[in-house]
Protein: Putative transcriptional regulator
Organism: Sinobaca qinghaiensis
Amino acid sequence: MKNLKMKAARAEKDLSQGELAEKIGVSRQTIGLMESGKYNPSLQLCLAVCHVLSKTLDELFWQDE
Amino acid sequence: MKNLKMKAARAEKDLSQGELAEKIGVSRQTIGLMESGKYNPSLQLCLAVCHVLSKTLDELFWQDE
DNA sequence: ACATAATGCAATATATATATTACATTATGT
DNA sequence: ACATAATGTAATATATATATTGCATTATGT
């Protein structure tokens, strides 16, 4: 499923996918895929996103199934 | 670094690494490696661990560095 | 002390996350 | 309408998570 929380948090910081990717040191596609929910990122990557977007894991990635 | 929070949460449920692994559908080694901090698990795996151990992502995997 | 369960740790194999490049489409500003 | 930036998406290549098997070591119970 799409990760709209991450998309919103990125918007809050006024960053493009490319800018966020660069800050994290990852490719733009990886960010795009995370937001479109096309795959299963690593914990390190999630933590890096959290730090740049000033959110916690629960705020961006929690999902009660 | 080691993940002692996960180890403690597993102890709280009185599960062995093997039992936890089986409940999640993953190998025992994967659980062992997660706890010994030897690698970088996927978000799905973290979420599965959280659900079995009744914890959130932040409780088990957050680290302010 | 013994038996058994739990854990740590290698080596190799396989699945999949991520990079790279490229192109098409959609948004945004002038 | 045009230019440009942002995004979606695909194909292939590479790095790495995870499985599998096996053995050594440490804990736990009797």
Summary: Residues 16-18, 28-29, 32-33, 35-36, 38, 42 of chain B lie near DNA strand C (CB under 10 Å from a C1').
